[in-house]
Amino acid sequence: MKIIGIICEYNPFHLGHEKQLRRIRQTFGGDCAIVCAMSGNYVQRGAPAIVDKSLRAEAAVRCGADLVLELPVTTALSSAEGFAAGSVALLARVCDVLCFGAEDADGQALLSAAQGLLAPGFPPLLRRELETGKSFPAARQAALERMGIPAELLSRPNNILAVEYCKAILSQKAPLEIFPICREGSYHALTPDPENPSATAVRQAMVSGRDWRPYVPSEARQLLEGAAVHTTAAGERAVLQRLRSMTEQEFADLPYGSEGLWRKLMHASRREARLEEILTAVKSKRYTRSRLDRMVLCAFLGITAGQLAEPAPYIRVLALSHRGRGVLKAARETGLFLHAGQSDPSPYWELERRWGDLYGLFTVDGIAPPGAEKARRVRYCPERP
Known about the structure:
Elements: E1 3-8, H1 15-28, E2 33-39, E3 42-43, E4 47-48, H2 53-62, E5 67-71, H3 73-76, H4 80-91, E6 97-102, H5 107-118, H6 122-130, H7 136-146, H8 157-172, E7 177-182, H9 199-208, H10 218-224, H11 236-245, H12 248-252, H13 261-269, H14 275-282, H15 289-301, H16 305-309, E8 315-321, H17 322-333, E9 338-339, H18 347-359, H19 372-375, E10 379-381
Parallel strand pairs: 1-2, 1-6, 2-5, 6-7, 8-9, 8-10
Antiparallel strand pairs: 3-4, 5-8
Helix pairs in contact: 2-10, 4-8, 5-8, 6-7, 11-15, 13-14
């Protein structure tokens, strides 16, 4: 039996995600197992997930996945490179194949770009391009082109992550085949495409009160209807309180704060009234907005650069099917410890509990009480509808 891995956020799970699961089963057979490594309550763009991670994980299993593992918060809030590296390291211990979407589903082209990024001659070329004032993405693309490697594909969001996945597989010598599939529709589209909606469009519909249900599979829709919606805007006052009360040393200890960026954030936090005004004041051509958003979210959660670099001591299981239970049992027999949802005495568990309590401050309707992590249990779906 082939075990296929997917790195995902399912923020929220929509028709395009269901299409990917169907494509995997059509290619590898109905008896393959699909294992998802999914961001929890905080996602890589530096924001709270739209709905709770257990609901999103159960939606995935009800729609065709077999096992959903939670990416540690420290992986989920890493740069694209760190996000990919942590995700690949997790799935390589369980899976045979990594499936991902890309605007250009050309495996060889993606691997070639990844090899270029890992080449010894790449870093000095990248530094030279950065010194001209280019943003990191533009400098990276220009540096690759100087090496004679077509890099235009790195101008598209899904391709960027796909190349990072390939880079992580190559650098870790992970025993994973790749199975790229074409990501149809626009990744950032604000109007939902009936067949290939973007998660951005579905989230906006959920927040604004527009009808989002046509863009979500019925099994997922039943779970998401009535679920508490979370947004950064809803928790703005809590984030501002944290930023306004931080010491200079706490700003200096933040991830992503190199080249004096932490100092700019500190001064803006002590001068500007609103979160958007702070981010606008700190933003520059050199730094992407997602980097700043992750930096601010890490500040709110109390995550230092050192903590972000530390691996989590266990893997949390969020949801599974009957087939997924078999994959989980086999993984445990090989010595891979998969934390099944009970509290753990390690310091990381205390951080998880705190981060879970803070997630409730981003709820649009009211404020959720603390204690969600302590009460959390694995969602088991033995039979799919």
